[in-house]
Specification:
The chain is 62% helix and 21% strand. With 312 residues, the chain is of the alpha+beta class. The strands form three sheets. The protein has a three-stranded antiparallel sheet with strand order 3-2-5. A three-stranded antiparallel sheet has the order 6-7-8. Belongs to the band 7/mec-2 family.
Length: 312
């Protein structure tokens, strides 16, 4: 019974060594007597007991490896602390087993060195604004170097870019200065717009005042012209009426009487307003003056009659 049990266990052990089931997500590297034989894909396989053995097992799913934070120096000599994630996948089980000792550790270290190199080509502001291009450059460099390892680097993502405390303090001051600068520019633009509006208002006011003065002068000129025209028409009508009156019988006598009265009235006004007595030197000549005025009246009357006959 004991021997039967031993034989049964030995058969089970032989069957265990003889059969191999590879899961769907893995590939197995088989060695025969210490030498690479084949890479078994997912499924059921037979092995030669005590000759063939599974040397390596690799997960064919996409793996995510955490890249620890590391200190980097940018192009403008700014110290940064950068970490990230690298996504890779085993493409060739044989190369992943014999091409390198530990492809995961190698991929992480290569990602760190490549990241330091790429960040050294960029300034501090570019590291924040050009993350996508930085990720692509890191993936391209890592994938080129990891090709003999039988793995494929799918993508790389930078998680955090943390400047030093001194740099953060400097950046805060810079941002505060930029905010003050923008505020001063805004205030200056507002003052400029206000001054422009005020000058435009003053200009428009001056234009309106000048237009008003111009219109006032025009109106005054028109009024003066109309006044002169009315006075001239009135004088013309008065002269016409006087000339017509002179042609009537007794008109000359009336004109002489009117002139004499006006003269006497003016002389009396002069004598009343003057501080000294003003008496004509030759009072006898007054009669001659009135006679001369009478002759002028007759001459004017004769000229009006002649003109009227010529018009007829």
């Amino acid at each position: 019974m004991f021997m039967f049990t031993i034989i049964f266990l030995f058969i089970i052990f032989i069957l265990y060594k003889l059969m191999l089931i590879v899961p769907m997500r893995e590939v197995h590297v088989i060695e025969r007597l210490g030498k690479f034989r084949t890479v078994l894909q997912p499924g059921f396989h037979f092995l030669v007991p005590f000759v063939d053995r599974v040397a390596y097992r690799h997960d064919t799913r996409e793996e995510v490896l955490d890249v620890p934070p590391q200190s980097c120096i940018s192009k403008d000599n700014t110290q940064l602390e950068v970490d990230g994630l690298v996504y890779l996948k085993v493409m060739d089980g044989k190369l992943a087993s014999y091409g390198i000792e530990n492809y995961r550790k190698a991929a992480v270290n290569l990602a760190q060195t490549t990241m330091r190199s790429e960040i050294g080509k960029l300034t501090l502001s570019q590291t924040f604004s050009e993350r996508d291009s930085l990720n692509e450059s890191i993936v391209r460099e890592i994938d080129k170097a990891s090709d003999p390892w039988g793995i494929k680097v799918l993508r790389y993502e930078i998680k955090n870019i943390t400047p030093s405390h001194h740099v953060i303090h400097t950046l805060e001051k810079q941002m505060e200065a930029e905010r003050r600068k923008r505020a001063e520019i805004t205030l200056a633009n507002a003052e400029k717009a206000a001054m422009i509006n005020m000058s435009q208002g003053e200009r428009q006011e001056a234009i309106n005042l000048s237009e008003g003065q111009k219109q006032k002068r025009i109106n005054e000129a028109i009024g003066t012209g109309q006044e002169i025209s009315i006075i001239a028409n009135a004088k013309a009508e008065g002269m016409a009426m006087i000339c017509k009156a002179l042609t009537v019988n007794g008109g000359n006598d009336a004109m002489n009487m009117l002139l004499k009265e006006q003269f006497i009235g003016q002389v009396g006004k002069i004598l009343a307003e003057s501080e000294v007595s003003v008496v004509p030197a030759e009072m006898a000549k007054l009669e001659g003056f009135f006679e001369g005025m009478e002759q002028v009246t007759h001459a004017v009357s004769g000229a009006q009659s002649t003109h009227a006959k010529g018009a007829r």
